[in-house]
Specification:
single chain, A middle domain of Talin 1, 12 helices, 0% strand
Amino acid sequence: MISSLPLHFLIVATFLAGAAVVISSIRATRLADIIADRTHMGEALIGGLILGGATSISGVIVSVTAAASGDASYAFSNAVGGIAAQTLFLALADILHRRANLEHAAAEPANLFQTVMLIILLSMPLAAIAGPELAYFGVHPVSLLMFLAYIYGVRLTSEVRERPMWRAVNTDETRTDEPEDPDEAQRSAWGPAMAFAGLVVVMALGGWVIGQSGQVLIARYGLASSLVGAVVTAVITSLPELVTTLVAVRRGALQLAVGGIIGGNTFDTLFLVGADIAYRDGSIYHAVSDNDLYWLATGLLMTGVLLAGLIVRQRQGPGRIGMESVLMMGIYGLALVLVFNS
């Protein structure tokens, strides 16, 4: 049905789907903060696992449906392009938090560990692409390893949160993860959790519409799959991460903001697992283009810079934002210039 829509109706449908995803994500951020307080799981863990996964659901739908249709480049670039875009959003949030560098104020061991895990998960598809062509039942073994690594990483993240072996040095600008309302922790998390699940369904439906629109743009107008995936649908489906991050920063939930981006990016690596399973012409890792590989390298480089910023914890950089934010914006901007001129 979407494939037969005229261009102006296609744009309207994509806009409405994106708006539904963004509005749902705003509500989801508030609920995630409440759930973090009521379950005592903490903002970093809830942000990384629950909020990050929920706001990524639309992107999952795009990559899996694209892979099922046989467009490996679209599926792959949507996943890795989204990781690069969402890391950029953390730099934009750093601009909003004017008191100090966001990575300094949101010091949390769980965020550090999840960033390391993200680098590991991004390195695995890179190894699969560089390695020999392997596929069992159409799925590369690295996809299974990525899924197992993610599950194990989630378990370790919880342990780091509950029993940290080291703690960040507190300064005047460090924001601790404590409930704003002391009575909040005594209330049930069941109601907010059910409302949160309903919002996830809305975001998933929005992702399906956005994915179908991207496929129409590729087929009807001959646009490159990697360009549509990495720059168009990846950015649109990543808007919830931008909104939730900015909302979390405005609410003072800094660990939730940083954890939501890092956790969302970590969850986004599973896009590739789902896409590899849905892609039936062999391993998706050996069907991607050089541009797709470039976006993977860009996401990996930006994540490395982010990790350095989380470790250094620069209090105030140029213009009161961290040097890592400046570098991440520069890396992403350069990537756009190179892709549009290639």
